[in-house]
Amino acid sequence: MNWLKQMDNYMFCSNTALEQPEFSIETVHSCNADYLTEIGQFMIAPVDDNTQIQIPVKNKNAYDVILQDLAPHFDKVQAVYVQESIEQVILSQLKAGSQKRLEDLVRKQTVSPLVRDLYRSGISKSDHFPMKLQWFQLINAEMDGYGNIVASDLIWFIENTFLANGTLAILPTGWKLNDDLKNSIALRFFARHFDNVCIGVSLDMNVEMLQISNCNPSSV
Question: Domain limits of the chain?
Answer without folding.
Answer: 4-15+25-219
